[in-house]
Specification:
A hairpin with a 3-residue loop joins strand 2 (30-31) and strand 3 (35-36). This protein has 10 helices and 27 strands. 41% of the residues are buried. With 385 residues, the chain is an alpha/beta fold.
Length: 385
């Protein structure tokens, strides 16, 4: 028996990220110089002593599966428990693609039941944050809750973009509003839940039989529990949290790592490490005339030009005469001589031609580049760089 089993939803397509998720699931997108987005949630589980975890994949899972492997970087290569990749499958009793967040858990009831847990933690693999899930679980136990939902205060002007939880003074939830036009408060759901398993299982089974349901936690399961006056409580989280669902928010979250603030310094916190499937690239090389300011660079980089306010992943080569500013350069990118890039995201294994000049304005979304996009730009300009 396991006290708490984690279920990590990692099948997101991430359409709003455009070319970044053309071939890979959103949680597998590179982030922060050496990580992938999912590393933050996986590391939260490791640091919170969640030792049994099901990772539910769906959209373009190949890269994600390779990255997670047997879970060794997160100390989850265990015979009893550990990490298990759970993909949609067809059995004699039927089966299909996951149609919603609740349906994804429902289709894997058998995985949870084998551990006979008291509680189930449901989390997402596409947010950037650091949280001790043990604190969430402790509050759930102390309040004798059926469900506990992690919430964060968002700016009032943005509250209408989120699912808002209305609570009493003791944080008991009495109403859930999905993207209200006139929110009553600014406590937004983070999509992080702890359920008492027997209670959740009953609701999942009932929801699965309802053809009109969208089989979603926020739209169906949580409202159903509220109608039945179940004990639902909010857990306040006051740390950094970012939903990197758009190109702009993805770029902003990366740039936040460069700020000399509490969030940027957390990367250096040895008491709450972010783990990843690392490589064996050699140390970076900085050329004689190179200049690097307020940036994160990684192993295997060869830098001969100027890099400012930017994040470079492993194996990046910046030739002489280049100027890179406020940009994110994914692994194994080569930037040709005398190129100037500003507010640009260059995808993995791309070669930027010599003399390329691409700038996104401050009020515009950062520009995403890969080999195909660069070829398209070249064709549109008649070969001009």
């Amino acid at each position: 028996m396991k006290e708490c089993v984690g279920m990590l939803l990692a099948g997101g397509e991430g359409k709003r990220l455009g070319a970044l998720t053309h071939d890979i699931a959103k949680p597998a997108v590179p982030f922060g110089g050496k990580y992938r987005i999912i590393d933050y949630t996986l590391s939260n589980c490791t640091n919170s002593n969640i030792q049994t975890l099901g990772v539910l994949t769906q959209y373009s899972p190949l890269e994600l599966n390779k990255h997670i492997g047997n879970g060794k970087p997160w100390d989850m290569d265990r015979r009893d428990g550990g990490v298990t990749i759970l993909s949609p499958y067809t059995a004699k009793t039927g089966g299909d693609w996951f149609t919603g967040t609740a349906d994804a858990i429902y289709q894997n009831i058998h995985f949870i039941n084998q551990y006979n847990p008291k509680y189930v933690l449901v989390i997402s693999g596409d947010h950037i944050y650091q949280m001790d899930y043990r604190k969430l679980l402790n509050q759930h136990k102390q309040s004798n809750a059926d469900a506990t939902i992690s919430v964060i205060e968002v700016p009032w002007e943005e509250a209408s973009r989120f699912g808002i939880l209305n609570t009493t003074d003791n944080l008991r939830i009495y109403e859930f509003e999905e993207k209200p036009e006139q929110p009553q408060n600014n406590l937004a759901s983070m999509g992080i839940y702890i359920f008492t398993w027997e209670t959740l299982k009953a609701y999942l089974l009932k929801d699965a039989s309802q053809q009109t349901s969208s089989h979603d936690f926020g739209k169906d399961i949580i409202p159903a529990m509220l109608r039945d006056e179940r004990r639902l409580y909010a857990y306040r989280f006051d740390g950094y949290w970012k939903d990197v669902g758009t190109v702009k928010s993805y770029w902003e979250a990366n740039m936040d790592l460069l700020d000399d603030n509490e969030w940027g310094r957390t990367l250096m916190d040895k008491n709450w490490m972010v783990y990843t499937n690392d490589s064996n690239f050699p140390p970076e090389f900085i050329g004689e005339n190179a200049s690097i300011q307020r940036s994160l660079t990684n192993s295997g980089c060869f830098i001969y030009g100027e890099v400012q306010n930017s994040i470079l992943f492993k194996g990046v080569k910046v030739e002489s005469g280049c100027s890179i500013n406020e940009s994110i350069i994914h692994p194994n990118v080569t930037i040709g001589r005398n190129s100037n890039l500003e507010r640009v995201i260059v995808m993995e294994n791309t070669t930027v031609p010599e003399g390329t000049n691409i700038h996104a304005k401050d009020n515009e979304e950062p520009i995403v580049l890969n080999q195909e996009i660069l070829e398209g730009m070249k064709a549109m300009t008649g070969g001009e760089k």
